[in-house]
Design brief:
It contains 16 helices and no strands. By secondary structure, it is an all-alpha fold. The chain has a single domain, classed as MFS general substrate transporter like domains (Growth Hormone, Chain: A, Up-down Bundle). The chain starts with a helix and ends with a helix.
Length: 354
Amino acid sequence: MSRLSWSIISTYTDLKPTIQEDLLIYSLFFGGYTIVQIPAGLLSDRINPKVILLTSILSFSMIALASGLAVNVIQEIAFSFLMGLSSGWIYPASVKVISLSFSERKAYYAYGFFSLSWPLSIVLTGLIIPSISLSIGWRFNYFIMSAISLASGLLLIPEKLNFEAKRVKIKYVVNRRIILFTLSGFLFFLGYWTLVLYSYRYLILLGLSDYQSSLVYSSLAIAGIISTVLSGKILSRVGPIRSLTLSSLMYSFLFLPFIFSRNFLVLTASSLSMGFFRFLITSSISSSLYDIARENIGGAIGFSNFAWQFSAVIAPMIASSLLSLYSYQTMWIVNSFFSFSSFALFLLFERTNK
């Protein structure tokens, strides 16, 4: 939720950021988030990942509080980078915790429920942040995130986790399958982050109301709540790699209404469908890595997620250039191309694993 919030907060803040300053805030957050992925993954295989989680969440809480107290855009830019640095440790450590806590097909269900954090964050971002910003002020979004993070960190303290440190096997981190898998995900997330970061403002520019824009934006994830809950059964029957290929194909086609339609109902229906397949992809990604790099999943997810999150650094740069030179429609066409390219590589990855 912290990663997505500025895309809406920037519409309501009294700091009045420019397009270039928005670009810096997006890119520096993901820059900080990205550079810690590989060390976070490797360390999650070497030390107790619960310690990593606790340290990261409590650090994030303090930085979120500071972000809400920022008095100018320069400070907001700096805190965005620090927020990325602190929160980047959470995902690799969480994936490692699940791999230690569950075995075989139970892990598919566990990763599915864990993946609820993604659609829920988008739904809450779209529905709550505009309301908070308009009613009590944009700063309270950060204050609330800080308080919730602090509470969740404290809840981690008494939890027990059986952990045995093992040497990291680099061949599981940088082999050919992992590299192909990583590149496929990079192209997918390149299109996805542009959609998430720029769609709300695009919908406002189309003439939709704040309420309609929030509804379409939240629809990008609402159906994801259903797909993540069902993902355990889907992955057990279809297999995570096959699920990944089919979901990426469907998601790519659903990009097209953003290119050709301005109708509220069409965009809402497309967003709902995208959300279903988008978050089935999240569960499929974690489960696929569980299958191909189980003992060293921390290092594997760190390497892959480094590239996937780096796409969030690149995506605003590409988007801002396209918006400056052309239009939103051109930007959606380019991102549709990224999405279909991702499907093609996921299909190749599937065939290399048969």
